[in-house]
UniProtKB/TrEMBL annotation:
Gene Ontology molecular function: ATP binding; inositol hexakisphosphate kinase activity
Protein name (database record): Kinase
An example Gene Ontology biological process: phosphatidylinositol phosphate biosynthetic process
Family (UniProt): Belongs to the inositol phosphokinase (IPK) family.
Length: 401
């Protein structure tokens, strides 16, 4: 019933961390609620940093409404855009992004009965619409396993997905519906979907730096963030795990960890989880270590040159494809077993495609930012400290230490 240019936003199923809901706009674009400080960052992004951030694609207007069944949905209206994004949106192709949620069937894994989800179930409590809210807080979790049915009733390959994005989406819809009426237009940022090129995106979300609160934080929020840093690896390493999904080739599921898991980790636990992120259930993906380390070193070089920038509360994503290239699945070179993982190691001369991206700049400040008058001198030493430790740990894993 929507006009041809309207897009029904869907929860972004590969969101592994954060609390703000990321929405899928189309195959190559995600969107999130606009925060002026983050917009200011993207609009004045230093050239050297662009390869390490999602491409900014503009702003779109979004409104909350109820569909014919009374379910809450979010509709993006490209025709109501408040800022041109240089022809990055093709309205004629937007139709493919308008999904009919009611045709989707979702399953909850092999050990649980098949559940048909209508969109109305998204408006119920998360506990009702996912196999247990406590699933989010378990140390080891194989998550919901959707079978998305297309218009012809065909079911594509079975994949498992991280429940975190749906959890954030549910909370976001509740917040919006309680605070605003349906007619209110909200502005959303349009950003590159940095995992769209991967068949089975393995994602590690790392909260970077020794300080997480922004300059605008209340005393209560400031104290809360300081405590989280002190009680986690943020203080000792300058980095902590905020979310993770790793495709397990032996089961066909994603292994997922959330921010609650990441906060509890010791320095050794952090190292072991990094190793687990590189394990596909059969072996350790040693072919990924060198390209990841090289990309992190390139980022480190760029960050050291960014005077006045403070990336408070931002995250760093490390991404690779869980679907290995054939040359990487050849006979294993050796059978070293690592503590706390069932992985042997596999070596390959061919580097797999990896990516490293900085995200979430709502609390980033820099000289000239309209949103934040506070200015700092020199680079972000807390961020640099975290990157240096991350590189060091990965190098140790690479050397078998």
């Amino acid at each position: 019933s929507e006009s041809r240019s309207s897009v029904l936003l869907e929860p972004f199923i590969h969101q592994v961390g954060g609390h703000m809901s990321m929405m899928k706009y189309d195959e190559h674009t995600v969107c999130k609620p606009l925060v002026s400080q983050e917009l200011s960052f993207y609009q004045s992004l230093p050239l050297a940093m662009r390869q390490f951030t999602p491409q900014y694609k503009g702003i779109v207007s979004v409104h909350l409404k109820k569909d014919s069944l009374g379910n809450l949905i979010l509709i993006a209206s490209p025709s109501l855009q408040t800022e041109s994004c240089g022809g990055c949106l093709d309205n004629s192709s937007s139709d493919s992004s308008v999904r009919i949620w009611h045709r989707h069937k979702w399953a909850t894994g092999p050990e649980l009965p098949l559940v048909k989800w209508s969109h109305s179930q998204l408006t119920k409590t998360f506990k009702d619409s996912c196999p247990g809210k406590m699933l989010l807080r378990t140390d080891l979790q194989y998550c919901t396993d959707p079978l998305l049915e297309d218009a012809n009733g065909n079911k594509p390959e079975r994949k498992s997905h991280n429940p975190w994005g749906l959890h954030c989406h549910r909370q976001h819809l509740n917040r919006m519906s309680s605070k605003h009426n349906e007619n209110k237009l909200h502005q959303f940022l349009l950003l590159e979907n940095v995992v769209s090129k991967y068949n089975y995106p393995c994602i590690l979300d790392l909260k970077m730096g020794t300080r997480q609160h922004g300059d605008d934080a209340s005393e209560e929020k400031k104290a809360r963030h300081i405590k989280k840093c002190e009680q986690s690896t943020s203080a000792s390493l300058g980095v902590r795990i905020c979310g993770m999904q790793v495709y397990q080739a032996d089961t066909g599921h994603f292994l997922c960890k959330d921010k609650y898991y990441g906060r509890k980790l010791s320095v050794e636990g952090f190292r072991q989880t990094l190793q687990q992120f590189l394990c596909n259930g059969n072996h350790l993906r040693t072919d990924l270590l060198e390209p990841i380390i090289l990309r992190l070193k390139a980022l480190l070089s760029v960050i050291r040159k960014q005077s006045s920038y403070r990336f408070y509360s931002s995250s760093l994503l490390i991404i690779y494809d869980g679907q290995e290239h054939k040359e990487n699945t050849a006979a294993l070179d050796n059978h070293l077993h690592f503590q706390n993982t069932n992985c042997t190691t596999s070596h390959s001369t061919n580097h797999s495609r990896v990516d490293v991206r900085m995200i979430d700049f709502a609390h980033t400040t820099f000289k000239g930012s309209k949103s934040n008058p506070t200015t700092y001198d020199g680079p972000d030493h807390g961020y640099i400290f975290g990157l240096e430790n991350l590189i060091k740990i990965l190098q140790n894993i690479s050397e078998g230490k």
